[in-house]
TrEMBL record:
Family: Belongs to the LuxC family.
Entry protein name: Acyl-CoA reductase
Species: Sphingomonas cavernae
Name of a matching Pfam family: LuxC
Keywords: NADP, Oxidoreductase
Amino acid sequence: MNVMEKKPEADAVVEPIRVNHFVRGKLVSGDAITHRSRDLGVDFVTPEIDLNALVAPRSELPPLLDVPTSEIIDFLVEAGQRMDFETNPYLQEALEHTVKVNPLPQRVVENLFRRAKHFLTREGLMCSIESSFLNPAALDGWIERTDMRGNKGALRAFPPRMVHMLAGNSPTGCISSIAQGALVKAINVFKMPSSDPFTCVAMLRTMADVDPDHPVVRSMSAVYWRGGDERIEGTLYRPQYFDKIVAWGGGDAIRNVIKYIGPGIQMVSFDPKTSISMIGPEGFESAELIDEVADAAATDVATMNQEACLASRFIFVEGEREGVETFCARLQERLGVDRETASAVAHPLPVEVRDEIEMLQLMEDDCKVWGKADGRGLVILTDEPVDFHPSNKTANVVHVNSLDDAIRYVNVATQTIGMYPPERKRAMRDRLASAGAQRVVRLGGAAKHVMGGAHDGMLPLQRFVHWMSDEDA
């Protein structure tokens, strides 16, 4: 049988995945446009975007303007209770499709979905509001004030109109964005990423099941377009339509948004960050302690298979060389462990990174490597940080004379710093903040959060609102 005779059998037709949109409370289906996912090159189809439907005219007051914050929280909590993976058909369908376009393995995505309902708790939502606003009543109305000269005025945290460019590295990150948009009573358009154009709509459909006419539901739209599409972005990213662009994403995505920023439209950027770890000599005092510290460090490195900004990539260590090398060996072993948000095996390192590592081993006498570039965990010990971006469960352990010396490698792109022993955080946090870092945690706690904390050096809710002043001076 020749090749031509075999072809029909070999070329099985794969139907593209259907992606739904959700526009101001209504589900929109269709297959007008074909796209290809960035990470895995999978085709999916979406409806045509009706730009007029996405834009609420300025003459139209936001649907949530006069809805009490307490009622919004009640609604979000009820929606959160319905985000139970076992019983929610929208989440189950989202999982089925997300794993086809997202580099994270199915087990990790499913674990994230099983935790989805915990994003919308009354305690967590209240913490976000109370830590962001000196007087949360400003969200519900005008707050009267008098200055030291007796001049009277009033302030209100007025609902903004926002486009959210959602991050693609965490399928459940959209839930926090939806909650934030609701808490500030915004009119929201969520631009979904190609690595997950499903979860946001699943959440909004769940909310519509609670009450399809609720002002929260009518304030939300979720659509997909290819990033950089000037036909859409050149129309939407205008101050007559929106106040803020909330940009999550890589450098190219952020630079693309910047060109639209001007008077009347602002960017709130959660741009790419790198996270690190710092371990003092106390971590290498015994074999048992080294094992404990290595597991904590591996937990931080492997989070989301190192796709998350808070996943550690560089580990600065102070201590005797023998203990450090033992730590590196243990760390490499612990990177190959299945965890709730990490698989035992990630994608292999890109070829160009493998070449750089091989060159390091040839050129640098003090460079040592544990493991292979096969996604099971790789540890590189050097005296200076490597020039490339460690990924796919790769940790660059940098041996320094003192953790104080490591501060010179901290900058405004440094998001999370895991510290061991945790008692050293207090002594170093001011200098780390001065260098540009945004968050310091105990080693192993990078993915754990204190409710209501800052994100990327800001309190997002405070940045989102449009502060309106009524003055009678």
